[in-house]
Design goal:
Chain B: This is V-ATPase proteolipid subunit C-like domain-containing protein. The complex is a heterodimer of chains A (about 240) and B (about 80). Chain A is an all-alpha fold. Chain A has 7 helices and 2 strands, in the order ββααααααα. Chain A has one domain (about 5-240). Chain A has a two-stranded antiparallel ribbon. Chain B is built from 4 helices and no strands. The chains are: A mainly alpha (about 240), B mainly alpha (about 80).
Chain lengths: ~240, ~80
């Protein structure tokens, strides 16, 4: 094997070391690619909404499609009450989507393949949704742990299961995105290593496989951003419309 | 047993979790197809649910893969 397939996930510093109170705040390649995708989103949406034509151009069409896609997703899963949270879900979805897609470019860095990034997103969502639930429903929000129509004998067990499943939400949400990204990129690099080590004679087989995998990974990159956003909508729905 | 060998065996055992993901993804796509064959007009509407189910099922297998990688690289 030419290089370690985990080498692509190395975070290294760019520029001088900045330390504030013992916390390392240096500019790394992870921050560079986050900044890069944020700027790309900004430019894309600015150009998309600059001239509001009745017959839209290509960029305007794509940005309008993205808007419609996310708006439909929110209204389908969380109902009309979730309309004020559209900007949050939209920026979350589009940021994860762009990070994943930029990660698919060769020699780039996938920000979402680091658990600290996805865990920060997920914990933010979890804490936000919990605060929202208590703010709207008060202590009635605890009813989320008591599903209706359960026999009274089973209730203690069900309640414990519900509480554990509620508390494991940030972990499952973050690990899903991180594991998909990391596993996919590791797999691509491993097959790339096979192409090199098998050489001209049999290297064509892993090469074709690797091309097919790249297609799959682009699908997964979109899908995981979608799943992250739709699960956020589902959690939001639980907090907004308490229907248990 | 040496620690290094035990790590390798443990990582291999953790990767068995991917078998479950394979079964899950197969079930999802199989059931979607059989449902779509019976009622093609309703199939398009359930496509987002198919993708959601696919991603959720794949993720459970990847949790096992993460355990394997943690054993190999983090300890």
């Amino acid at each position: 094997m030419a290089t370690n397939p985990m080498h692509q996930f190395n975070v290294h510093k760019i520029g001088p070391e900045i330390k504030i109170g013992g916390i390392d705040l240096s500019f790394t390649n992870a921050s560079l690619f986050m900044l890069f995708s944020a700027i790309l989103i900004l430019l894309f949406l600015l150009f998309g909404t600059k001239e509001k034509k009745i017959v839209p151009g290509k960029i305007q069409l794509i940005s309008e499609m993205l808007y419609g896609f996310v708006a439909k997703m929110i209204s389908d899963t969380a109902g009309k009450k979730a309309k004020p949270y559209f900007p949050f879900i939209f920026s979350l979805f589009i940021f994860i989507l762009f990070c994943n897609m930029i990660g698919m470019l060769p020699y780039s860095f996938t920000v979402t393949s680091h658990i600290i990034v996805t865990l920060a997103f997920a914990v933010f969502i979890f804490v936000g949704v919990t605060i929202l639930g208590f703010a709207i429903h008060g202590f009635k929000y605890l009813k989320i742990f008591v599903p209706s129509g359960v026999p009274i004998v089973l209730l203690p067990i069900i309640m414990i299961i519900e509480i554990i499943s509620y508390l494991s939400r940030p972990i499952s949400l973050s690990v899903r995105l991180f594991a998909n990204m990391m596993a996919g990129h590791t797999m691509l690099k491993v097959f790339g290593g096979f192409v090199i080590s098998l050489g001209l004679v049999a290297g064509w087989l892993p090469l074709t496989f690797s091309i097919a995998l790249t297609g799959l990974e682009i699908l997964v990159a979109f899908l995981q951003a979608y799943v992250f956003a739709i699960l956020t909508c589902i959690y939001l729905n639980d907090a907004l419309n308490l229907h248990h | 047993m040496e620690l290094e060998a035990a790590k390798m065996i443990g990582a291999g055992l953790a990767a068995i979790a991917l078998a479950g993901a394979g079964v899950g993804i197969g079930l999802i796509f199989g059931n979607y197809l059989s449902g779509a064959m019976r009622n093609p007009s309703a199939a398009q509407k359930q496509f987002p649910n198919l993708l959601l189910g696919f991603a959720l099922a794949e993720a459970t297998g990847l949790f096992g893969l993460v355990v394997a990688l943690i054993i190999l690289f983090a300890f």
